[in-house]
Amino acid sequence: MLILHLSLECYPIAKVGGLGDVVGALPKYLNRNDSESWVVMPKYRRKWFDNHQTEIVYRNKVKLDCSQVPFQIERLSESVLGFPVYFIDIPGLWDRPGVYSDSSTNDEYWDTFERYISFQKAALMWISDFDQKPDILHCHDHHTGLIPFMTMCADDFESLKRIPTVLTIHNGEYHGRYSFSEVKFLPKFGWNNVGLLDWHGEMNALAAGIKTAWRVTTVSESYMQELQYHSNGLEALLNKEEGKCIGIVNGIDTEQWNPETDELLEDHYSVDTADKGKKSNKKHLCSKFGLDPKKPLFSFIGRMVNEKGADLLPDLIIKSVDRYPDVQFLILGTGERKLEHRLAEVGADFRENVHVELAYDEKLAHKMYAGSDFMIMPSRVEPCGLNQMYALRYGTIPIVRAVGGLKDTVIDVDEDKNGYGIKFYDFNIPESFEAIEKALRLFNDKKRLKTVIKRGMSLDFSWNSSALNYISLYKTLVKESEKL
Fold first, then answer.
1. Tens digit of pLDDT for each residue in 387-408?
2. How many whole angstroms separate alpha carbon 46 and alpha carbon 97?
3. Alpha carbons 205 and 194: distance in angstroms, whole number
4. Residue 438 to residues 107, 152, 297, 374, 445, Cα–Cα distance (Å)
5. Cβ atoms of 373 and 239 closer than 8 Å
6. 283/266 Cα distance (integer angstroms)
7. Alpha-carbon dihedral angle through residues 143, 148, 152, 153, given to the nearest 10 degrees
């Protein structure tokens, strides 16, 4: 069974968020379970390509309005990721370092729709020329949401009509909304199907994908339920299409995220040596930022945006430090400029207790998972969340708001005898501060703390079970296609 994953992100080639982690891991685990998975993504102008060779396997031209734009498909020559990767190279549109926006200004590219549709059309043109067609086209987020529509309705891709399509919603807040004037960039299709593109008078790529994909998945069961009530305007559609929607919780790559072998750590450790290993890594981490390794350390890693609840952090940090002078915070991330400035001010005002690192730093993130005592995730929206799984893998206790995948993957230490995390429910300072206080009580109860750490590290959050759920879904769809 051949599955093609079409995505704009894939770690370590190009990653902006959790989408990159998922596409960089799921295909590897699928391939270990008697499937063949490839990743198809754009070729960016990134340093990663300086050290990796590709070979050209296909050339053609994609029509964009009145223009014929040349493109080529390149295959990664080495087998370094555990699955084949194919890059669509479209000069003038994709040969830029930024995935979604100009990396120098953070502004979205002016020709976003042309970029996305050129990638999707080029992919389908290439697939149409396969002697043996793939069994599944697995599309990720709205950037590839028009692929199910085009395989169902476009004249040029009639040969792909019987290939089942799966659309995974990694973040339902972003839809890909465009003026209907952009329809000129789509391949020819019967105008009686134009309604499949429409949502509230706009062309909506995510809505089109939900309407036309054979199945719609998202990254946790709770998030699928939440989307029916909060999906930035698609609630009615997701309720209508409920019968073909399913939530499958994400996993993590437990080979990449392994404190026993992680090359980015100062000292390696296992569940049996966690006490000594975490103390050593915490000492190195704290010395880097002028913090005290004997005091409790709370960390935040992520985008500084309201969706991640980062706007709660400044007041929460101030209240926590005022009430408990020994508490420490280490913040890593970038995002909204106002929020960056606000957090930087808090870091400057409380420099003995707080350090704010305004950067995207994968190496530092690994060190923080290993050296922190607690990882706080106060998200307003969290489709699945991976940070809590990374934290648990490294013996760091997650403090999460019970929403989406955080609700599904974290059990509170006071709500269940087998708990390994801390939850709060309402998005406000009083409840989040109570969670900080609960964490401090746990920190001071060393015997219980060690037990909770070992319990969390012993959990299996790998992609193994999730991959099997996807394979079961794929097999069901293949059987449906054979009946057509």
1. 999 999 999 999 999 999 999 9
2. 5
3. 12
4. 41, 53, 14, 11, 11
5. no
6. 10
7. -10
Q: What is the pLDDT of residue 326?
A: 96
φ, ψ of residue 38 to 5 degrees: the values are -115, 155
Q: What would the pLDDT profile of 433-456 be if each residue is shown by its tens digit?
A: 999 999 999 999 999 999 999 999
Nearest to 146 by CA among 82, 216, 96, 204: 204
Distance, CA of 328 to CA of 286 (rounded, Å): 10
CA angle 238, 210, 31 (to 5 degrees): 115
Would you state the torsion angle of the CA atoms of residues 264, 306, 220, 119, taken in this order, to the nearest 10 degrees?
Answer: -80
Which residue ranges in the chain fall short of pLDDT 50? none
Reported as a single tens digit per residue, the pLDDT across 233-292 is 999 999 999 999 999 999 999 988 999 999 999 999 999 999 999 999 999 999 999 999
Q: Tell me the three state secondary structure of residue 392.
A: helix
- pTM listed for this prediction: 0.89
What is the identity of the amino acid at 348?
A
Which phi-psi region, left, alpha or beta, contains residue 423 (left: φ > 0; alpha: ψ -120 to 50)?
beta
Task: Give all domains of the chain, ordered by start, each with its CATH number.
Answer: 2-251+464-482 (3.40.50.2000), 274-457 (3.40.50.2000)
Q: What's the CA gap between 358 and 364, in Å, rounded?
A: 12
Q: Helices then strands (H, E): number in the chain?
A: 16, 18
Residue 425, sorted as left (phi over 0), alpha (psi -120 to 50) or beta, turns out to be: alpha
Residues 415, 423: Cα–Cα separation, whole Å: 9
C-alpha 208/C-alpha 196 separation (Å) is 5
Q: Is the dihedral of CA 478, 18, 365, 444 positive or negative?
A: negative
pLDDT over 70 percentage in the chain: 100
Contact 6, 19 (CB under 8 A): no
* Strand-by-strand arrangement of the 85-89 sheet: 54-64, 67-76, 85-89, 36-42, 2-6, 136-140, 165-169, 215-218, 245-247
CA distance 399 to 438: 10
pLDDT value for 78? 86
Amino acid at 227: L
Query: Would you call 168 helix, strand, or coil by DSSP?
Result: strand
Peptide bond before residue 12 is cis, with ω within 30 degrees of 0 = yes
The mean of the pLDDT values for the chain is 96
Residue found by looking up tokens 């389908």 in the block: 124
In sequence order, the 6+-apart residues with CB closer than 8 A to the CB of 63 are 69, 121, 187
CB neighbour burial string for 291-305, b if at least 16 within 10 angstroms, e if fewer: bebebbbbbbbbbbb
> What is the residue whose two structure tokens read 């000292």?
267
